[in-house]
């Protein structure tokens, strides 16, 4: 099979020629940009590699999170210092830059753009945080900011085998490598190749790679550009469509000829039938005239009573008096029964037409494909609701997530009408719209005959907006404000319900149904040492070493800096311990405090492992292999990770705030989220007391059994069914009463 090249100047072809023997390699991409278009790392990701993508622009970072879950995706810049920097985001993709001079030149040439303030870190600091093994290649493409990135690197401690650095002024052939090349060469790197846009360097300890980089991409590399592949696929599809159209045309022509012959035969038969009909009609008229003449004759009218008496006498003679009256009664009963059956048939049809609730499921979250806790709720619940006989499921497809939504529906064999967000009069096809996140489209809200149900997870972005970006906080505000007194609301915990009622005092408790979530059937104790060892290998956890686990999206609210501080304090008190800390989860936002904690971990830094995103199939083994699970989140709407850990029999240390006590109960150790001393004491007790570990494990397993998706499904089903039967209020209130 040909190597598919995505890179702008065949950089990936050159790198693959040198590194194709490396399995599951590791890369760093500074200035990653789009996850596919012009990507140097896309082809490697498709072959099982993973790495770090450094991308400051929020739109590209969001795409990387969605398409590169195995990678560590950082929304920041790399530079010569740590702090904050302004990135000029040009209206042309790929031209964004942190260089003031380059931005000024673009503006002078008539380009437009906007500035974003983003965090900036030295590349050496990023490597300290996330690199635990070999770096097989480092690519730097930052539109004139390459020198600053190189100044922030430490090529003596972190040694990528190959460096690929853009070496010309943006969008020109003017070379600028003289500004920074001396720093690269003095770090024991050798120039291997220049392609007119980039310069390739090889570490002095890997000179065996030089020969692979001697010549430009050529026929022996057996590669194909992604655009070429796409064009060929489109051409093949067009050719297939043309052949199919030609076949259809030939079939249509044959059908037309057949139809013409059939029409001629039918015309001849019709003419023959018409002749016969006219002859029969003439005979019938003649007979009718003779019969009418008889009926009008005086003799027929005069003998009417004679004929009637003769018929009744004959019937009485044959049946007897009793049988005759029974016959008349039976005929009357048959008439009544026929009328009753007709009425029953009509009622049954009406009942069948109204038995199923036309439930529209908003595919917004599943279409995004980012596997957060909200995604997991939709993934479990939507499939179950779509398969219920009580519902006639259909799907709201938003234009922004159309491709992902259709892919999900196809992969999960979820059939039913698909409705666009701008459909007019959606009530023609929908009774209830269930929205898992985001405000319903305007045309759906304008149609007063569509009833709205909404899942509310938490009010964290409203109560603590500093935990989120301004855009994310604004979106949650809009969701909360869109709720009316006629909305059926599903809250994922009692805490979320009470918090919502406190904030929206116009809402009533009766319209909010609590639907506790569940861990899912895939979460159970894993006793298979082969699976556990395979997961250790996959995520670079030393074989046989004990570890504590914390799993969450790496973002400020999860309070992971306290987890690191607790671990470091424990290790300082127990320096002979072999314990590791595993932080699992995709990179999120506002990571300054976590990064600082890891950088301050001193001699224990090498014991802190960041796995990046963990595939669902690996979670049970990862939980089961841990000595305990620690979760010090500042605020939750439910808290799935502690429940998943308990379902796997792993002892849990957990925050005692928000909804978490509802989930963990007395089956785990509950502490204040910022109390590092209590965390260390709890960790020490679990590590040193096997009996306590066993008791917490058993209690956790029993606690987890209380939460099932089947229960959640039935609660949602009953609430939606009751909601469909309740008459809407005559006054549809939109007014808000905020706290």
From TrEMBL:
<dbReference type="Pfam" id="PF05050">
    <property type="entry name" value="Methyltransf_21"/>
</dbReference>
<dbReference type="GO" id="GO:0008168">
    <property type="term" value="F:methyltransferase activity"/>
</dbReference>
<dbReference type="InterPro" id="IPR029063">
    <property type="entry name" value="SAM-dependent_MTases_sf"/>
</dbReference>
<feature type="domain" description="Methyltransferase FkbM">
    <location>
        <begin position="29"/>
        <end position="172"/>
    </location>
</feature>
<keyword id="KW-0489">Methyltransferase</keyword>
<dbReference type="InterPro" id="IPR001296">
    <property type="entry name" value="Glyco_trans_1"/>
</dbReference>
<dbReference type="Pfam" id="PF00534">
    <property type="entry name" value="Glycos_transf_1"/>
</dbReference>
<dbReference type="GO" id="GO:0009103">
    <property type="term" value="P:lipopolysaccharide biosynthetic process"/>
</dbReference>
<feature type="domain" description="Glycosyl transferase family 1">
    <location>
        <begin position="536"/>
        <end position="701"/>
    </location>
</feature>
<feature type="compositionally biased region" description="Low complexity">
    <location>
        <begin position="249"/>
        <end position="265"/>
    </location>
</feature>
<dbReference type="GO" id="GO:0032259">
    <property type="term" value="P:methylation"/>
</dbReference>
<feature type="region of interest" description="Disordered">
    <location>
        <begin position="240"/>
        <end position="265"/>
    </location>
</feature>
<dbReference type="GO" id="GO:0016757">
    <property type="term" value="F:glycosyltransferase activity"/>
</dbReference>
<keyword id="KW-0808">Transferase</keyword>
<protein>
    <submittedName>
        <fullName>FkbM family methyltransferase</fullName>
    </submittedName>
</protein>
<dbReference type="InterPro" id="IPR006342">
    <property type="entry name" value="FkbM_mtfrase"/>
</dbReference>
